[in-house]
Amino acid sequence: MRETFVDAATALLDDNPRTAVVLADISAAAFEPAARQHPDRVINVGIREQLMLGVAGGLALTGLRPIVHSYAPFVVDRAYEQIKLDLNHQGVGAVLVSIGASYDASAEGRTHQSPGDVALFDTLGGWTVHVPGHADEIGPLLTAAAAHDEPVYVRLSTQHNAEARPATGLQTLRRGGQAAVVAVGPMLDTVLAAVDGLDVTVAYTNTPRPFDVKGLRALGHSDVVLVEPYLAGTSSAVVSDALRDVPHRLLSLGVVRTDLHRYGSPKDHARWHGLDPAGVRQSISAFVG
Fold first, then answer.
1. Phi-psi domain of 126 (left: phi exceeds 0; alpha: psi -120 through 50; beta: other)
2. Which of 50, 90, 223, 260 is 20 to 30 Å from 81 at the Cα level?
3. Over the stretch 1-25, which tens digit does the pLDDT of each residue have?
């Protein structure tokens, strides 16, 4: 996904003179060819993530469309106040593109993990959030995000599905009678493996914000399971509000809130958080009875 993003952003720099890329050393080498071609619109501020967001806010005020990129904990957690003030408070937007997801870089320790990033954007409101499940979904999402001035967050991951699904609303993949299971981004293949043989509906989205409320209600289920690749329960308020006039049950699966104090591989973390196929199946089976 990272390489696809660099290619897509470089193409936007070539084709759209309003596009700019702001970096804080991460992926700077990958953008070197683009920086040589567009030295005034590829800006590397060094290891200064707060400054990176401040520069993006300034560029947006001049009419440019900044694409800001780093690891999720650096571009979101560390620079949250600058997102709040230099973008939201000033009424300007940018396209923030992260790598690392919740625990892709688990071998680097807790400093490189950001399971709470999407929840932080919910505290600001008004952000579109894309969580691609496949590299081929990135180009269209980034191109669309660069064409307007609203705030957008694109969350990339090393985890991915086998097949790209370009729909940005809820896309129903199979029908069942007991519950609706909503898989976000790269969790889809895990969900499909987990529910094999279970009588459940499976729907997919790579755009959890704004959440496709109409699509959720159209699924016709009062029992809903959310499987998200970030903090468990991040979308629970959205789903509960969408079904506020319907008696319903909700199971929210995602990264647990306990700090595990472990390194390990991404697969280890998925297992520890119950987000591998076996863990997801166990949770869903207990929920639907």
1. left
2. 260
3. 999 999 999 999 999 999 999 999 9
